[in-house]
Design a protein that fits this description.
The protein has 5 helices and 8 strands; from the N terminus they run αββββαβαβαββα. The chain has a 6-stranded mixed beta sheet, covered by helices on one side. A two-stranded antiparallel ribbon has the order 1-3. Helices cover about 40% and strands about 20% of the residues. Helix 3 links the parallel strand 5 and strand 6. Helix 2 runs parallel beside helix 5 (about 170-180). It is an alpha/beta fold and about 180 residues long. The protein has a single domain, classed as 3-Layer(aba) Sandwich (Glutaredoxin), CATH 3.40.30.10.
Length: about 180
């Protein structure tokens, strides 16, 4: 019996090692259309709103929300989408926007980004600006890292649209139409 154990022990150790290495990949379930993502709270060393207060994804309810998750180095990837949403001027009591900045995805120093975000918050007071210092949404929601990700949430907090990367003109039209229909 001990000879069999000696032969199986390396195999058992290898299986445990592979499972341990692969576990993080399975832990972060990718958010998908039709799903309400697990609640996330960003505060203190994880990030939060630009004013330093806590941000919780549990607050994404009651209106249609566009959430963009942006690597600061990719901020100019979807100007057509941003302009299309701006032109729509959706009613503020039915529509909201959230910009979550992936602070861990850039070489730019946080103090510079903090200053830029404070200016943006003043210029666009109807958008909620949030800092994600530790890539929490990447880890917990499976959102693409080092990218520009767009999620649209319905009034119940479920995702009704998701796109990682640059949106085509047709995708922008579909996104605007979906928001309009969902209001």
């Amino acid at each position: 019996m001990t000879t069999l154990l000696k032969k199986l022990l390396p195999l058992f150790i290898m299986v445990l090692l592979v499972a341990f290495v692969a576990l993080p990949a399975f832990a972060a379930a990718e958010v998908a259309v039709g799903v309400q993502p697990v609640p996330i709270t960003l505060e203190k060393d994880l990030g939060g709103k630009v004013d330093g207060s806590t941000w919780s994804s549990s607050d994404i309810k009651g209106k249609i929300y566009t959430l963009v998750y942006v690597d600061p180095d990719m901020k100019d990837l979807n100007p057509k989408m941003e302009e299309a949403l701006k032109q729509e001027a959706f009613p503020k009591d039915k529509y909201g926007s959230i910009a979550v900045i992936n602070m861990g995805a850039t070489w730019k120093p946080n103090f510079i980004l903090d200053s830029i975000l404070k200016d943006k918050q003043e210029k666009f007071p109807n958008t909620i600006y949030v800092k994600d210092l530790k890539k929490t949404l990447v880890k917990e929601w499976g959102i693409a890292d080092d990218n520009y990700d767009v999620l649209i949430f319905d009034k119940d907090g479920k995702i009704i649209f998701r796109k990682d990367g640059q949106l085509s003109d047709d995708e922008i039209k579909a996104l605007v139409a979906l928001i309009r229909k969902s209001l």
